[in-house]
């Protein structure tokens, strides 16, 4: 089955489809040894595609859900020799990549795939994929604090999008609380920074949901392949189906 060259590049995780088109127009792409400088070219699975002299990866698309433990790096490899999320998926033969990231000390739901186009869309703010976190925080947030989080707080000069937030439980003796926070943005350390900005630093953090996906049936360090229905639902959410 032939597909447009820029779509094949996007699916392989080279870049977004628009950025892939620019690479083609800039003469950075070769098909079967020939430089391609025009859009509309279609390629088959047997064609050899090079971008900046490097062959692109055209493996079958796979999708995994991982219950990331604390103390694991969200990366493909780590120059300090620390364990990565890819190390956990040691029996997966395809080269998968994490969709977004969770901090070293944050546990919870993480998607990994080799479908670059879907990964790019899931991370793009346009698609507003909700992610729910549960945090143990210092202090007990007041109703005014919760209202600030719901309306958005200023982090590094930029206001966050409105969030859903509630206090699940509190311990007045220890002066701690368990807070559930749902956002669709994906800024670096966002949940920690939001709670810190309102005076309630995070002591422990976990991501419980990603869109409609949950950690049901998994314990820390477990992972599973997504079902066909789950993959189809993600494609619908991101306009790929």
UniProtKB/TrEMBL annotation:
EC number: 5.4.99.-
Pfam families per record: PseudoU_synth_2, S4
Keyword terms: Isomerase, RNA-binding
Any Gene Ontology CC annotation: cytosol
InterPro entries in alphabetical order: PsdUridine_s_RsuA/RluB/E/F_cat, PsdUridine_synth_cat_dom_sf, PsdUridine_synth_RsuA/RluA, PsdUridine_synth_RsuA/RluB/E/F, PsdUridine_synth_RsuA/RluB_CS, RsuA_PseudoU_synthase, S4_RNA-bd, S4_RNA-bd_sf
Domain RNA-binding S4 span(s) in chain numbering: 3-71
Family matches, as PROSITE patterns: PSI_RSU (PS01149), S4 (PS50889)
Source taxon at top rank: Bacteria
MF annotations from Gene Ontology: RNA binding; rRNA pseudouridine synthase activity
Family per record: Belongs to the pseudouridine synthase RsuA family.
Name recorded for this polypeptide: Pseudouridine synthase
